[in-house]
Amino acid sequence: MTEIPEGRDSGLAGAALPYRLRPIFLTPAEITFYRALKEMIGDRYIIFAKVALNEIFGIVRPNENVHYFNKLFRKYVDFLLCNPDTLKPQLGVEMMHSAPKGGLRDLDRFMQDLFLAAGLPLVQVRSGDQFNIADILSSFQQAFARVKEARGRAASAVQDSIPMCPVCGKMMVLRTQHGGKADGRLYYGCIDNPACPGRVATK
């Protein structure tokens, strides 16, 4: 009787594992954007690609908030910019693809809510063949400004408490208006958006 070396499964011995290297890691558009990003930031940040959200964000009382863990599961941010000394996350970048007419995909809206709630700036850029560094820089500045404004509102939460949804009564979260005269402004939107349209203007 042939002895099997300790630690080896006889069922897998000699069998080829069913793994293959993916033909591409980053799409051509992502590579183009990465190069523009690298040129813009130089050595101010370290860029990581396709970082899992659950490696960036933790969940308060995870046993009570399984629903929120599931929203993070198997999702990632396209690029994460980190402090070169501490490797602490400083800003996320999401490549946005096709969206429903007149709005954002549910995933893009969730990413906005997630990063804003955690106080981490997020830049969302449309996927394309070319990227303008001046436009990217402007998006960075806007993202940091949104987080700063959100922190200011959180600090004054005693005077300006977060409202409950006037439509369904659930919790509301800070969101950013896209398009129209109020473009770029923050407002409270129902956590169940787009299923629930409830929204409240910030003071």
SSE inventory with pairings:
Elements: H1 28-41, E1 46-52, H2 53-56, H3 66-72, E2 76-82, E3 89-96, H4 106-118, E4 122-126, H5 133-155, E5 172-176, E6 186-190, E7 199-201
How is this structure best described in words?
The radius of gyration is 21 Å and the shape is globular. It has a four-stranded mixed β-sheet with strand order 1-2-3-4, with helices on both faces. A three-stranded antiparallel β-sheet has the order 5-6-7. It has two domains: 28-155, no CATH class; 158-203. It starts with 27 loop residues before the first helix and ends with a strand. 30% of the residues lie in helices and 20% in strands. It contains five helices and seven strands; from the N terminus they run H-E-H-H-E-E-H-E-H-E-E-E. The chain is an alpha+beta fold and 203 residues long.
How is this structure best summarized?
This protein is α+β, with helices and mostly antiparallel strands.
Low-confidence stretches: none
Mean pLDDT: 83
Number of DSSP helical runs = 5
Helix/strand class:
alpha+beta
Fraction of residues in H or I helices: 25-40%
- Rg over alpha carbons: 21 Å
Q: What coarse outline follows from CA principal-axis ratios?
A: globular
Strand content: 15-25%
Number of domains: 2
Provide keyphrases for this structure.
alpha+beta; three-stranded antiparallel sheet; 7 strands; 30% helix
